[in-house]
Amino acid sequence: MSEITRVLKTFIGYLKRPDLYPELGRKIIKNTVNRGNAFKGKEKTNSWAAGKAISQEEAVLKLFGLETGTFRTDYAEFLKTAEQREKECPVKMGGAGALELIYYACEFANAKHVVETGVAYGWSSLASLLSLTKRDGTLYSSDMPYLAQDGDQYVGCIVPQNLKSNWKLFRFADKESLPKIFAENSVFDVLHYDSDKSYNGRMWAYDELYKHLKKGGVFISDDIGDNSAYQDFCEKNSIETTVVEYEGKYIGVFVK
């Protein structure tokens, strides 16, 4: 698909969804007036993150006092089925991230309420739900539809049916989804951010999410090397964060 075709299909997709008009307006501003906002402070933060980064296994042991060794064997069948469903999906979306970090964050926090932004195939959703279902907890997820690819029905496609009763999926931009989620539940045990990559989008969401994280809860943000939003947020709030290097990217995680 050419870039022009993709942009046109996305715009038409927005026009068909009046509930997404506020996000359309924000996208236009982000891609015109605030075009450089996505990479603000990128060089500074990558240098900072590289100096702090440890492995996922080290982070789980350091923060949660847990070993990651049994996750892949305990849930081998779930993961094998999920991988097959991803292969069969006709729409290309983001792949699996640091699943053990998410799963053991939920285990450490004895989580009953988790909120995530960004779903795609549903890998992070699966990791959270495998823990949450032990306590009959609920995962609240915010994710935009893939308008250019007609991919609405494929978001979360790897999550098995037997876990979906513990899952609430909100199909809007974060600025519309999060207020709806917080109206249903106001305090969360684990927060996982993986949506709007812009500096302004992150700073807004980080502030909102942090307000709703319980003391002793876990905050995780993917792709923190895209810009300096995560570093700036942590410094502004005097937060001592751990940085995880995973597959060439950086993840930020801390316990409140």
Care to describe what's here?
- The chain has 256 residues and is an alpha/beta fold.
- It is 44% helix and 16% strand.
- It is built from 11 helices and 7 strands.
- A 7-stranded mixed β-sheet has the order 3-2-1-4-5-7-6, sandwiched between helices.
- Helix 4 (56-64) runs parallel beside helix 7 (99-108).
- The protein is globular and about 50 Å long.
- The N and C termini lie far apart (43 Å).
- The mean pLDDT is 91.
Question: Which characteristics define this entry?
Answer:
seven-stranded mixed beta sheet, alpha/beta, 256 residues
Count of β-strands: 7
What Rg, in angstroms, do the CA atoms define? 18 Å
Q: Taking strands numbered 1, 2, ... along the chain, how are they ordered across the largest sheet?
A: 3-2-1-4-5-7-6
Total helices: the number is: 11
Mean pLDDT: 91
Helix and strand pattern: HHHHHHHEHEEHEHEHEE
Strand portion: 15-25%
Helix content: 40-55%
